[in-house]
Amino acid sequence: MPPLLTPPASSSPLLLASRLGALHGPAPLLHHHRRAVASVHFLAPRRKTRPGPAMSWLGKLGLSGLGGSPRASEASAALAQGPDEDRPAPGNEFAQFGAGCFWGVELAFQRVPGVTRTEVGYSQGNLHEPTYEDVCTGATNHNEVVRVQYDTAACKFDDLLDVFWARHDPTTPNRQGNDVGTQYRSGIYYYTPEQEKAARESLEKQQKLLNRTIVTEILPAKRFYRAEEYHQQYLEKGGRFGFRQSADKGCNDPIRCYG
């Protein structure tokens, strides 16, 4: 994922993390990282300047004396931890997966026959309506996820699980390659008891194939916050430099996750 643009000093990730740490435990480690292809570094599209202190992360989190009240913070967390109330198209079901940088994960699922829609976003956190910058502080506990809509007559949940396991290393806590942070953790977020059962059985099978402990979390799907538009189908659209990658069904070209 691309490095963050520097936010205003009054709402910096370090300040947010340190203030949260004072209330909820040690501040998380913050990592800035970038991927490279042929030694060329790619950056995300330029973003508009963030709002001033009145709309800072601290205010949105509702921390006492820092733009809100503990009650506001609890209300935000309650909304964020609610169930995903969106509904899939008739004959379809949703599934959510976290497996590192969501650009490459989404493209992998786009190629699966029977998948009718994919969206990248944030879930499992404690902040209502988070932004990419909020998530990258590591303080909101959101994960970068792909919400997959699939036609149950043409695609099985087990097919999606196969792609999930093949796409990432499920044994590295909060890390995929050079991407480090809580938003890169491995997770399967189920919508139905059948999905939960299949996910747990699949994890048991995968564990027998590996000599390190799988750290994938299996939890109920929570409210899904759609990521900013430039993140959607990022690799298919070509990213910042126009290097388009195929999302055709059944395509098995290597996925290059640059940014």
Automatic annotation (TrEMBL):
Domain Peptide methionine sulphoxide reductase MsrA: 95-237
Keyword line: Oxidoreductase
Renumbered residue ranges of the record's region Disordered: 72-91
Pfam name, any one: PMSR
Record has Transmembrane as a keyword: no
Catalytic activity: L-methionyl-[protein] + [thioredoxin]-disulfide + H2O = L-methionyl-(S)-S-oxide-[protein] + [thioredoxin]-dithiol; [thioredoxin]-disulfide + L-methionine + H2O = L-methionine (S)-S-oxide + [thioredoxin]-dithiol
Source superkingdom: Eukaryota
Record-listed E.C. numbers: 1.8.4.11
Coiled coil regions in record: none
Alphabetized SUPFAM superfamilies for the sequence: Peptide methionine sulfoxide reductase
Gene3D superfamilies linked to this entry: Peptide methionine sulphoxide reductase MsrA
Molecular function per GO: peptide-methionine (S)-S-oxide reductase activity
Similarity annotation: Belongs to the MsrA Met sulfoxide reductase family.
Protein name: peptide-methionine (S)-S-oxide reductase
Source organism per UniProt: Urochloa decumbens
